[in-house]
Amino acid sequence: LVVNSPSNPTGAVFSETALEGVRDLAVEHDIAVISDEIYERIVYDAEHVSLASLDGMADRTITVNGFSKAYSMTGWRLGYIHAKGDFVGEAGKLHSHSVSCAVNFVQHAGVEALENTDEAVAEMREAFADRRDLLVDLFDEHGIDVDVGDGAFYMMLPVDEDDQAWCEAAIEEASVACVPGSAFNAPGYARISYAASAERLREAVDRLVANDLL
Question: Which of 66, 89, 116 is at the close of a domain?
Fold first, then answer.
């Protein structure tokens, strides 16, 4: 079973009650769970709960995380897992024969990120929240109601039934890049990322409006 919270593409954050439901299912059926928690530090109006912290889940959860999102180290490809020792040992064998290891300077950057960037991460999280709220207001001005997630930096914009065609028009006519919701089994929506400046987000909405896409 794979769980992703906070979620890409919706920004949904599973409550502790919801995760307890996952735990109960996993324990009852003896299922191992991969918990993707890459956005754990980008949470706004909710609290992130790590699945492995729940009773009965420490030995059956493989937690996947990394430095790409919270620390803006996307291109440096540094990540990690937390799991039972025997699993980590086997995963290490596979990893060493696939990529050998993460490059040395990136490992040092990861240590620096973990030890000395709490203030910077908090500032970034606040900026994301402001941009999220800005987009909600801009879409509301055009009569569009969007569901707001409690984490990550995405929202799902309701568009035409043919979301693929809408996204193609957005990039070709308005030079605004979105991802069709159908790629996430959510047809009729487009995923919007607000990992951009407020000025660029305003410009993107203006371009969509000017091309009759909103």
Answer: 116
